Amino acid sequence: MNPKTIIVVCVLICAGCDSVQDKIPAVSKRYRECNEGYALLYELTRQEQNVDKILMVKNANEKVSAEIKQIAQIFGQAHDQLDAFAKQYPRLRFETTRLPTLEKKTRDSIESQTTKTLLFSSGRNFELQLLLTQVQALQYAAHLAKELGGQDDSQNRKGFLNQFSKQCEQRHQHVIELLSSL
Fold it and tell me: Within a 13 Å sphere around the CA of 29, how many CA atoms are in the beta-carbon half?
């Protein structure tokens, strides 16, 4: 082989490797971030699908109970859909959120305090505290799903995420209206 040809081939190979190496971290980062977003959404739907279980031990008025049951149903359906996506798309992994340790501890602390507050409150105060938790959860879920939908390449999952985001926004508005009527 001609020495000039060898040099040209080597330069092209090296240049090609550089451009491939530049793209691999970007693809890996996007894939990782998307999976981390799904992991966060999966955990949130897992928790929120059971929010109505507190009504087994605590009493709330009919309107609050109905709203909480509706929220639990929406999150339960979303959780089931995420499970279906995990089976359909094996590259989706819901195990790792990669939250910093301090963020994880802070979230655990808030969850523990919120649980205590709900369990040791009653009447209108219980209803108010419960609805406030749902304002936060619904707002977070709506924004997380919207951002995740902007990163996901699958039209099927994008459609689900956009629909779920809108459902959360609608329920969020219902909860705000319910709070103003208490």
Answer: 6
